[in-house]
Specification:
25% of the residues lie in helices and 30% in strands. With 371 residues, it is of the alpha+beta class. It is globular and about 70 Å long.
Length: 371
């Protein structure tokens, strides 16, 4: 009798355990990743800047002073005071307020058109990672060095790729973008990518979501993102984007759509509003993922990333900020303003590296969702 009662109780407990367990479709498989690196996609090579690389910091300052009408002797006097940045003297004030509106000095970073276009050098090379966003193989467009697809649109790289701190050939990363993402990774909330499908080891349809986590990335002993961290997903709809896609031969792609994200970190765009977003993400045997994200972004958002850096961006990174404004405006290739005809978005592509992670949906208080 006792044994029958005990058996009945054990059976009841088993049924209750099953009833309260998280319900998940038996056929669904989910893998989540946290972005460890995100850098502007580029493929620098000898001869891809017909005018040469843009001047370094000191030569850039000399050119600025010459454009303001300073005599050669005065320019060298100022550069002696500058002394490689260790004793800037009057230079910051001159550089910051070199703009002129109605003959009065203005902050050039707030008013980039208050100086003439310095016509910074831009890329004219053959290769760039990315996507053919407009399905047009225009003359002079890039070719993806890996997929060999032609008609690649990455005008953001074209605008910035002749600045020394923005040059690199894969697998190397450009100095500025390596610094920007590495610094941002310590202060911004994690970027999460989740891929869901019937069987991710086989070809088929998938759903891909981009989310922001509620916490920052924890680094391992090599200063990389720690694998297998758990992140609760931020419920803010401005940080959630979902795409239909497919997996083929271990590579995930998506149907073009809109991607939105808020970073809030220095040295990066504070907000990402990407139209016709494309993704090519390779799922690697070690559980990590890498690939390319591309689409059209408002070029003013990208300019703001540089403009907010002000004198530090020019004096430490070597980016001519008014020159950047003019280059982005000239090379913008989408979303024309109906009144002026000026394109308000520019094509861009980014290299992504990610490591496996666990995610918890906003409404779920326990039990991390799949990796």
């Amino acid at each position: 009798m006792v044994s029958r009662i005990l058996s009945a109780r054990l059976a009841c407990a088993a049924v209750m355990a099953i009833s309260i367990a998280p319900v998940r479709p038996a056929s669904a498989e989910t893998k989540s990743f946290v972005v460890d690196w995100l850098t502007l996609a580029m493929h620098s090579e000898d001869g891809d800047c017909p005018g040469g690389e843009n001047p370094g910091i000191e030569d850039m300052f000399r050119g600025i002073f010459k454009g303001m009408g300073y005599e050669p002797d005065k320019i060298e006097e100022l550069m002696v005071l500058y002394n490689g940045g260790s004793g800037a003297g009057p230079i910051p004030g001159i550089v910051v307020y070199r703009g002129r509106i109605d003959g009065k000095p203005v902050n050039v970073y707030d008013n980039p058109t208050s100086v003439p276009d310095p016509n910074i050098h831009t890329v004219a090379g053959r290769y760039s990672p990315g996507f053919d966003l407009d399905n047009k193989a225009e003359p002079g467009s890039f070719e993806d060095p890996e997929t060999r697809e032609k008609g690649i649109d990455n005008q953001f790289y074209r605008a910035m790729g002749c600045i020394h701190s923005h040059r690199a050939t894969p697998p190397h990363r450009a100095g500025y973008w390596s610094y920007a993402w590495d610094a941002g990774k310590s202060v911004v909330r994690a970027w999460l990518i989740t891929v869901t499908g019937d069987d991710l080891s086989r070809d088929g349809k998938v759903t891909v979501t981009f989310n922001r986590g509620m916490s920052r990335v924890i680094r391992d002993a090599n200063s990389q993102a720690q694998r297998d961290q758990t992140f609760k997903i931020d419920p803010d709809p401005r940080t959630q984007s979902s795409f239909r896609g497919q997996i083929k031969d271990g590579v995930v792609t998506i149907e073009p759509g809109e991607l939105h994200m808020i970073t809030g970190g220095a040295y990066l765009p504070l907000q990402w509003d990407m139209q016709r977003a494309h993704l090519r993400l390779k799922l690697k045997p070690d559980g990590s993922a890498e690939g390319v994200l591309g689409g059209y972004q408002p070029w003013l958002q990208l300019f703001y990333m540089y403009g907010i850096g002000g004198y530090g961006m020019e004096g430490m990174i070597g980016v001519n900020i008014p020159g950047t404004y003019y280059a982005l405006r000239k090379l913008a290739d989408a979303n024309p303003d109906p009144k002026t005809g000026q394109n308000m978005s520019i094509s861009a592509a980014y290299k992504i590296e990610a490591v496996p992670a666990f995610t918890i949906p906003p409404s779920q208080k326990s039990a991390a969702a799949g990796r």
